């Protein structure tokens, strides 16, 4: 099956935004067994959009197009597809009603311009947009209208904003694909998520034991993310399940506790579940990560049951006033030190009589480094029920990557204590 | 001038890596005045690479292809281009010497496999790779070999690793483009960033006044992000600068203070600059945003000069203990109330004698809503030097979007006070 993705948007072509749809959709589709053969990005121009869609339809059985469904004058996909396929646009009252409801819920008047989003090409299936006003659109295309040799294809149009596209893909497109374009051979895929070991070490550790399974048809993929590596084990056909199960067993033997999940789950989700099931509580004291860890934890629904408070102690005064860090320790060891990390973790824990206090202090850069403590230096302290441990890391990355990596290291320290 | 980019790599098509070349190259090219008309990604497959290059050459005067120049069996671009254009591959002794030097400098033997990278299609110009072994390749293509109607084109092949590609582009490709493909007409582009008004309202407000300029060649684009809309004004040719300047003036007249930047800048960056230049300080008290705002602010280098502390008061106890919120107010009005937001902002400000205290309390969902205070309810309080204001919003989105939108609203409230 040939699958193509088309991303529309002049801001993409000007390099103003990073096209994250491409990776996200490719990864989602690959996990379902549909490997993307080509991805194309074009600007918000009628001719470019029409040409790209027409060309993809002559080659593919599945074309997914993102963007250009909004209310403004540069949102052209809906019109261009209707023209290309010779379909009339008609107002779909259910979409109009949804748009009205959307603005009612926000106590705002419905701008007249937004009504254009209810224009649907005849024959199209509408995909509900739970997070915005532009619906997704699906058309079964008999493409011989413009290319007689081509195969019939499914054309799926999704709205551009990621927070609208992603839930729509998961809730509506995945069931649609399974129904309309079932894969001929079974496809089994398991992703094991590891923390704390690099991609090449992961590969060195598991490569040898998987060789026979790879010869028998197992596919192994690696995805390196900050301080974590996802291992994707997949196979097709009648023996797919056995192959993947055997591979998972071998990988678990080699990597053991480095594996923190076999679901599409973040480390923060694993932590919240583990704390919840033990009825344990946590206080965070963050300096160099500036709230990043608190934000990750509070992205998990239910985190309020276990996360009592986070203190972003970005100044020395706040470390002293809120966490009880001693002036003498700051003078003698500096704010970025094992001693201060320990006092931050214990201070946070004691203030709320929590079960755990987790603290980080470090130098995110770009400035502030010294010979002794270069940019990237970080101390992570975990105060638990019986003891406090402090780990030292060097994370010499840009500011945002530094935060991500440090957060993963801190959460992994807590996970190892909990699980 | 038609410009296209081709990115090769199976790992891109499986969604294992994010294709950052696309944004980086598009932004670099746009800044030089070459706007990319199409970007294509294909897997490491001979047929896919050949088809993509052949198609691009029939449409474009400039084609930049990334990846597939390395030494392994899936590096196919060099061979495929030579075949496509009917060129012989010949070893270039200067490249072989460079590869030898590269390994000598690292005191490692030169692997025999790497020698293939010195194979150069006849007639190609070699671009020096200062950070790796695979050279870049440039071919002037007389394309009527495979498409008689097409124009002559420049085909530039660059190595895949970003730390090799980027310096090669800046050091070798930029001078080459200026020499070989000088632009006949100038390209001018300005992006205005707005906060607090929706995409369709923005268009309603500015559409009318820009009509004449659009007829004269102005291009207007919109990019909607959570609670902000970017407006892109661009034009080409001799009148480009006048067109864009006139458009900017008209848009500023209509949208006034809603515009917070004409640079590629986030609201958090504007806030840190404004506080810094006034030598003012800020304390954050976050409940429902869970550290998101602190994280945004501390992503800005230099934020430590103005941001004293953030308190993520996720429990009632932490609101009382750290911010001095009164038990009676919690009992009478609830944690999500105008009264508690005000006490949080003032408590944070007073604790550190800061100039500003900014506080948010709300219901992020998915649970916790009531009839009176549904999911998405949020109160934002700003305690300033002379008074405290509290705003009420309803942001009924998923948890992460709720945080983003609420953060923008809080930062915008502060910006309006500052600027």
| Mean pLDDT over the residues of chain A | 92
Assembly type of the chains comes to homodimer
CATH architecture of the largest domain in chain A: 3-Layer(aba) Sandwich
What amount of the residues of chain A lies in strands? Answer: 15-25%
CATH homologous superfamily of the largest domain in chain A? MoaB/Mog-like domain
The total beta strand count of chain A reads 17
Count, helices of chain A: 14
Could you estimate the helical fraction of the residues of chain A in percent?
40-55%
Give the total of domains of chain A: 3
CATH class annotation of the largest domain in chain A: Alpha Beta
Q: N- to C-terminal separation of chain A?
A: 43 Å
- Helix/sheet category of chain A: alpha/beta
């Amino acid at each position: 099956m040939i699958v193509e993705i088309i991303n529309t948007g002049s801001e993409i072509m000007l390099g103003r935004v990073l096209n994250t749809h491409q990776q996200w959709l490719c990864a989602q589709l690959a996990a379902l067994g549909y490997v993307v053969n080509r991805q194309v990005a074009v600007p918000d121009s009628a001719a470019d959009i029409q040409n790209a869609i027409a060309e993809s339809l002559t080659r593919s059985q599945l074309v997914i197009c993102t963007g250009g469904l909004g209310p403004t004058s540069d949102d052209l996909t809906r019109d261009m597809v209707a023209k290309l396929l010779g379909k009339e646009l008609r107002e779909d009252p259910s979409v109009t009603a949804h748009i009205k409801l959307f603005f009612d819920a926000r106590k705002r008047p419905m701008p007249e311009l937004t009504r254009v989003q209810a224009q649907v090409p005849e024959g199209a299936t509408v995909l509900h947009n739970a997070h915005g006003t532009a619906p997704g659109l699906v058309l079964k295309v008999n493409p011989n209208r413009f290319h007689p040799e081509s195969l019939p294809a499914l054309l799926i149009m999704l709205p551009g904003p990621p927070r609208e596209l992603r839930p729509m893909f998961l809730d509506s497109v995945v069931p649609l694909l399974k129904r309309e374009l079932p894969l001929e051979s079974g496809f089994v895929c398991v992703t094991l998520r590891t923390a704390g070991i690099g991609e090449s070490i992961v590969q060195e550790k598991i490569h040898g034991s998987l060789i026979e399974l790879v010869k028998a048809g197992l596919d192994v993929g690696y995805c390196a993310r900050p301080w974590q590596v996802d291992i994707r084990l997949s196979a097709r056909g009648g023996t797919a399940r056995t192959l993947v199960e055997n591979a998972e067993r071998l990988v678990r033997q080699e990597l053991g506790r480095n594996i923190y999940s076999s679901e599409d789950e973040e480390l923060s989700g694993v932590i919240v579940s583990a704390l919840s099931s033990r009825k344990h509580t946590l206080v965070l004291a963050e300096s160099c990560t500036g709230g990043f860890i608190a934000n990750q934890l509070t992205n998990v629904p239910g985190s309020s049951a276990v996360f009592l408070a986070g203190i972003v102690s970005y100044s020395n005064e706040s470390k002293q006033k809120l966490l009880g860090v001693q002036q003498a320790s700051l003078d003698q060891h500096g704010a970025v030190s094992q001693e201060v990390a320990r006092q931050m973790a214990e201070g946070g824990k004691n203030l709320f009589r929590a079960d755990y206090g987790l603290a980080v202090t470090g130098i995110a850069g770009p400035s502030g480094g010294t010979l002794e403590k270069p940019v990237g230096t970080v101390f992570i302290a975990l105060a638990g029920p019986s003891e406090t441990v402090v780990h030292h890391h060097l994370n010499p990355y840009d500011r945002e990557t530094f935060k991500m990596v440090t957060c993963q290291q801190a959460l992994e320290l807590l996970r190892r204590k909990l699980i």
